[in-house]
Amino acid sequence: MSIDWWALGLQAVNVLILVWLLSRLFWQPVAAAVARRQDDTQALWAAARQERDAARSAMDDVADARNGVAAEREARLAAAEAEAEATRTAARRQGRKDVEAMLAEARRTLAEEARRARQASAAEATGLAVDIAGRLLARLPEGVVQQAFLDLLVQAVTALPPEDRAALAGADIAVVGAAPLSPDGQARVRQALGGVLTGPPRLRFETDPALIAGLELRAPHLALRNSWQADLERLGKDLRDAR
Question: Which keywords annotate this record (predicted)?
Fold first, then answer.
């Protein structure tokens, strides 16, 4: 078997030419197209990644906004609840103050009404006592009543400290009766008081029908109340205090 080197060489040349033609006319355009396609693909991937990142950022913004809205809503609800509680507390306090003010006013009103009732009762009791005293006095002999009050007046003067009795001895004394005293009555008063004082008193006799009955002694530095008027005033005070 012999090898035709000329034929083999021609085939080799043909192959080289074909390879050159293929690389020139096919492989380079295809490689360029593939490269362009890869570049386009990379650009698409880059754009897709950007859109994905933008979408994620937008979703994060939406989530943040949603969280912010929820937080603001919670804050508003908390503020509204706090304001409502403050309003309720203020209303309760004001209500308590109003009730306390009403109770205090009611107590003042009741106390004032009770005071007026006591005064009215005391005045009524005093008026009744005056009426009864007047009726009793009308049934008693005048001399007996005057003597009884004179004895009480002497007892009151006797019970005074010695220095007060000594002062009365030299003082200008008014002896006040509910009715004018007769000369005999005045003499009895002078004698009775002179017996308990250290010296003869200087007496003047006055009349005050408001005493109802009694004899009172009035000096510059003291007074001895000895009448039914004084007794009734003490009785009225006791009635008011007892109520």
Answer: ATP synthesis, Cell membrane, CF(0), Coiled coil, Hydrogen ion transport, Ion transport, Membrane, Transmembrane, Transmembrane helix, Transport
Question: What values do phi and psi take at 86, rounded to 5?
Answer: -65, -40
pLDDT for 57-79, tens place per residue? 877 776 777 777 778 878 888 88
Kindly give the pairing relationship between strand 215-218 and strand 223-224. Answer: antiparallel
Distance spanning both ends of the chain, measured CA to CA: 163
DSSP assignment string, 50-72: HHHHHHHHHHHHHHHHHHHHHHH
Tell me, what's the pLDDT at 127?
59
Using an 8 Å Cβ cutoff, are 222 and 159 in contact? no
Question: Is residue 185 classed exposed, middle or buried when 0-12, 13-18 and 19+ CB atoms within 10 A define those classes?
Answer: buried
**Residue pLDDT, tens place only, 163-201:** 888 888 878 899 999 889 999 999 999 999 888 887 777
Read off the DSSP letter of residue 181: P
Q: Is the pLDDT of residue 15 over 80?
A: no
Contacts of 243 (CB under 8 A, 6+ apart): 114, 117, 118, 121
Enumerate domains of the chain plus CATH numbers: 140-242 (3.30.2320)
Helices marked H in 140-182: 142-158, 162-169
113-142 burial: b if 16+ Cβ within 10 Å, else e: eeeeebeeebeebbeebeeebeeeeeeeee
Beta bridge partners of 177: 207, 215
Q: Which stretch of DSSP H or E encloses residue 231?
A: helix 228-242
